[in-house]
Each structure stands twice: as C-alpha cells, then as structure tokens.
Amino acid sequence: MGGTLPGKTKTVPAYSSLPYSNKYVSGRVYALLKQQQCIIDVLEQMEDNGVCPDAETDAMVLNIFGRHGFPTKKLRRMTYWMPKFKNLSPWALPEKIPTSNLEVAKLAVQRMEMEIFQTSELRDAIDDTWIVSVQSATQRKLLAKLQEKKTVFVEGAFTIWLRRTSINYFILRSDPEPLSEEDQKQRTQFDYDEEKVL
C-alpha cells in the first residue's frame, strides 16, 4: 500500500490517513490479496491499540474491497465486538493506567475491601515498601477457623494484567482441615464410585 503502520497511536485519524485509494476497487473477492492483508494488518493494529473504526473507515474499506472482502468482514466484527468488550466489566479501568505500582495494585483489587500495610511501620523490616491485602468474607471466616500455630504457605508470584501493565500478587494457603465425623458420614453416604455401584 505504500504507507507505514502508525506505532502505538490510539486515534482513528492516524489510521485513516494511510494512503487508501479507489484504484484497488475490485469486484472479485479473492483479488488483491496482498492489499487485503495489508489492510487487515492495519485493522489488527487498531484492535491491539483499542481503536474502534469509525463510519469513515468503514465506508473506505467497503468502497475499496466490497461487501464480501476479508477486510470488510474483519472491520464489521471489530465494530460489533469491540464496544461490547470495552464496557463489559463493572470495574472499568481508566484509559491511562497509573505508573505507581501502589496505584496499580489498588486498581487490581478495587472490587474487594482492601488494607494497605507499610513495611516501614514494622520493627524488623528490611525494605521500605507496601503490601495491599484483600480478603473476601469467606476467606476471613476460613482464617478465623484456622488453628493457632497452623502452617500457612505463601504462594506466588502470580501475574495480573491491567491493560498493558502487570503486577505480581501472592496468595496464602494452608493444608485442608480434616472432615468432621458428620461430614465424613455424609460424604460416604453420597459417594458413588464405580466399585460400589457394581
């Protein structure tokens, strides 16, 4: 096509200014496969950067490649699905993710009640850092039932992604509690493995 893909631009006009031309208009679906692939690459980059095509881009692609062209199909899928996925989460992230790791951690766990601990407040602290801690109501109940001096393991680091920013998190885990006699009886009463059925 003669143009270069705009880097990480997140605006539609940057993509619309690429050198499109009506000279590629063709009535055949499989004609101009190289040009179709070039436009599909541009649409892919728009999708990766979260840029939804506008009506002008739609009209250009439709005019150049026709209703049944691969770029038109790709563009129609993008205009259908991108707005749906963009507004799907009830905990929407801001367009620009903060650069502070503490703020990123707060965004990652915003749907649960959180506590922030500063390690500088601890007597034996080696680093001056922070810990963002979250627990659901069920997790609090399980921790309250945990026996004193029971071993709790820290597992991780696991990664969570917020747009193009990642942060690590850790989980606490302990060995499961043995079942009470009543729970054990109930479990064996309804436990049908193959040997018992035969």
TrEMBL record:
Please provide the record's keywords in A-Z order. Answer: Cytoplasm, Immunity, Innate immunity, Mitochondrion, Nucleus, Transit peptide
One Pfam family, short name please? ECSIT_N
Q: Which family does it belong to?
A: Belongs to the ECSIT family.
Q: Which SMART domains match?
A: ECSIT_Cterm
Could you tell me where this protein is found in the cell? Cytoplasm; Mitochondrion; Nucleus
Q: What is its main location?
A: cytoplasm
Q: Write the protein's name.
A: Evolutionarily conserved signaling intermediate in Toll pathway, mitochondrial
Q: Which InterPro entries match?
A: ECIST_C, ECSIT, ECSIT_N
Q: Where is the ECSIT C-terminal domain?
A: 136-193
What superkingdom does the record give?
Answer: Eukaryota
